[in-house]
Write a structure and sequence with these properties.
The structure holds two protein chains of two kinds.
Chain A lengths: L1 H17 L9 H53 L7 E8 L10 E6 L8 E6 L2 E4 L7 E4 L7 E5 L8 E7 L6 E7 L4 E6 L8 E5 L4 E3 L4 H21 L1 E15 L8 E11 L4 E17 L16 E22 L6 E25 L2 E30 L3 E12 L10 E13 L2
Parallel strand pairs in A: 1-7, 2-6, 5-9
Antiparallel strand pairs in A: 1-6, 2-3, 3-4, 4-5, 7-10, 8-9, 10-11, 12-13, 12-19, 13-14, 14-15, 15-16, 16-17, 17-18, 18-19
Chain B lengths: L3 H9 L3 H23 L2 H17 L9 H26 L23 H16 L2 H12 L4 H8 L3 H29 L1
Helix pairs in contact in B: 1-2, 2-3, 2-4, 3-4, 6-8, 7-8
Classes of the chains: A alpha+beta, B mainly alpha.
């Protein structure tokens, strides 16, 4: 039996070696293209890793700067209110719907101490509620023809300290409570149109039974004045600015890897529409360097000048581009000295010069070809521009800005219609003209 | 013709000229190996191409020996790459049997050739292997034709050694039956 098996095995071994299978057609060009692609990827892996590292670093830095900006802005706003660190006493004003103001005769005041949760009656006279309440200030409420009655909850005040009182309307109506008249015995608080006031915090000095509030007449006037000033400032903020911008860039096609870094330099002009928004354009001269496998290169524009059976393995290219960006710039909250901003827009390219080094294979023979193209090809809205930047005032000169950016291709450019993606960093100087 | 060692050195340098020589020289050899596993001509050609790409990419790992050994060594190494690539391809399709027979146009038998009968016999034997159940066929190919041991086969296709052995026994039994039937059929025709 083993002999039979051995004979049979030997027979099949000979059959496997000598069976008459037709040889496949020559597919060397495909294999060469695959090998070229893989070699290129392997060669650029290191560069890609470096780019990823730097991109991550850049992104982290941008995020850090933005967060730091927000924190700085928040702290600055906090400093504006001296009440921030003071204990807060809440007065909750609840709306009671469906009651005619003329028939309302009572409201309740409740101390928010746990051991004194008794509701106490407030009397209502001619639209004014009076109540002496132990542990709270005497309060008189003027209803101003509103169809509400008010349940007033107030905490026990510390007579030795100023305290902060937050007043809200329970049903969600965002109204502010403002003092009208202050004495040792009474605190008169009037309901106002909430749109008049920005702040809803005010200070009660129990020792003098006074309430300090931005909503006092003089404060209101001051606020109005401030508002007018702000509007004037806003008008002053409008205007045209000009600047110079330059930077380094990395270009790549379909995440295949990077060639040497490119650069760009140019002028920008912008119009500040408001404190936050401006429109920018400019003229930049770019030099882009890139690499691509042949499969992303559209041969249709070159087919007449290349051999019919030629296969493109890869190319290394560079081009000189005039770039016209049109962007909206949005200033993130900050101060007048420094702030973060983001921009979004599109760029139009005018390619004036392009040089490609092609690696080709024709009938199994490799050949290097160089192509130089001098023309003015226009590509309207060829890339989507996105950036996050940081801008700071530098004395009387103007502003300096640092702007990491990303340009994503919306269409292919150059003789091969290559989708070139660009990432880089701009440094710019701008100056308000008028 | 250039010396194989010289060609291999050229391939290690990733010189396309020498890669091309290897491709031209071993294309048929590679296709015959892969076809025994895949049994679909067009897919087998793709697997062969993949095998060549893997070969050229990993040539740095090839250890050159004496001139006399290098040819044999290279063929064994390349066969291993091809078999692994073919098994990977089979695994992608869960080793499902291919539908239909082998089309006639994949064979190349010249009627006037001296060994035409022998070629026909070999062709029939290869078709007999195709008729085996997929698991038996792979083990038969690996063990009998390509010379792997059961433990190597167990590693390669992730089956227990016992299963490899039983699949081989079953393959042999089925092939013996098939050969017997084939011979009976020939006798009847006579």
């Amino acid at each position: 039996m083993p002999d039979v098996e051995n004979n049979m095995d030997e027979l099949f071994r000979r059959a496997a070696e000598g069976y008459p299978l037709k040889n496949s057609k020559d597919e060397w060009d495909n294999i060469a293209a695959l090998l070229e692609h893989n070699t290129a990827i392997a060669a650029t892996t290191h560069k890609e890793k470096s780019l990823k590292k730097y991109s991550t670093l850049l992104l982290s830095l941008s995020l850090f700067l933005i967060i730091a900006g927000f924190i700085a802005n928040y702290n600055r706003n906090k400093k504006v209110s001296p009440l921030a660190s003071q204990p807060e006493r809440k007065i909750l004003v609840e709306e009671v719907k469906g009651k005619d103001i003329n028939k309302i005769t009572e409201a309740l005041a409740v101390p928010n101490k746990k051991d004194a949760l008794k509701k106490q009656l407030l009397t209502y006279t001619n639209g004014v509620v009076n109540q002496n309440h132990p542990g709270t200030k005497n309060a008189t409420w003027l209803s101003k023809k509103r169809k509400y009655s008010y349940h007033i909850y107030s905490g026990v005040s510390d007579i030795n300290k100023s305290e902060k009182i937050r007043a809200t309307v329970g049903s969600g109506v965002n109204e502010k409570i403002l003092p009208k008249k202050i004495s040792n015995e009474k605190v008169l608080i009037q309901m106002h149109d909430p749109s008049e006031y920005a702040a809803n915090d005010f200070v009660l000095h129990p020792s003098v039974s006074s309430i300090q509030l931005p909503g006092k007449k003089e404060d209101i006037n001051a606020e109005k004045k401030a508002s007018v000033n702000n509007k004037e400032k806003g008008k002053k903020q409008q205007g045209i600015y000009l600047g110079l911008m330059f930077g380094a860039s990395f270009n790549q096609i379909k995440t295949q890897g990077l060639k040497k870094p490119g650069y760009d330099i140019g002028v920008i002009a912008g119009y500040q529409i408001s404190k936050s928004i401006s429109v920018e354009t400019g003229l930049m001269y770019d030099r882009k360097y890139y690499f691509s496998s042949g499969k992303y290169f559209d041969m249709s524009k070159l087919s007449s000048s290349m051999p019919a059976d030629m296969k493109l393995l890869s190319l290394e290219g560079s081009c000189a581009v005039f770039e016209i960006p049109v962007k909206i710039k949005y200033n993130l909250p900050g101060n007048r000295i420094r702030n973060f901003y983001s921009t979004a827009g599109v760029s139009t390219y005018i390619i004036t010069n392009e040089q490609n080094k092609y690696r080709t294979v024709t009938n199994g023979t490799e050949q290097n070809i160089t192509g130089t193209y001098i023309n003015n090809s226009r590509y309207l809205a060829a890339a989507l521009d996105l950036s996050l930047g940081y801008e700071s005032k530098i004395g009387s000169f103007g502003n300096i800005r640092i702007e990491p950016y990303l340009q994503m291709p919306l269409k292919g450019i150059g003789v091969g219609s290559l989708p070139v993606m660009t990432a880089g960093m701009h440094i710019g100087f701008t100056r308000l003209i008028r | 013709m250039e010396n194989i060692t010289y060609i291999i050195k050229g391939c290690i340098q990733r010189d396309h000229k020498y890669q091309r020589i290897i491709y031209n020289q071993y294309r048929g050899y590679a296709l015959k190996i892969v076809f025994r596993y895949i049994y679909r001509y067009d897919r087998a050609v793709d697997v062969v191409n993949d095998g060549f790409v893997k070969l050229f990419r990993s040539f740095e790992k090839f250890e050159l020996g004496d001139d006399t050994d290098n040819q044999k060594k290279f063929m064994g190494w390349f066969k291993r790459i091809l078999v692994n690539t073919a098994i990977d391809e089979l695994r992608k399709g869960s080793m499902l049997p291919e539908i239909g027979g082998i089309p006639e146009h994949v064979w190349e038998i010249k009627d006037n050739s001296q060994n035409a009968d022998q070629l026909l016999l070999y062709k029939d034997l290869i078709i007999l292997i195709k008729e085996l159940p997929p698991a038996c066929r792979v083990v038969f190919n690996l063990y009998v034709i390509d010379g792997y041991t059961h433990s190597e086969i167990a590693d390669m296709i992730k089956i227990p050694i016992g299963t490899s052995k039983s699949n081989l026994s079953r393959a042999r039994a089925l092939l013996q039956n098939s050969i017997k039937k084939m011979e009976e059929g020939k006798l009847c025709r006579m």
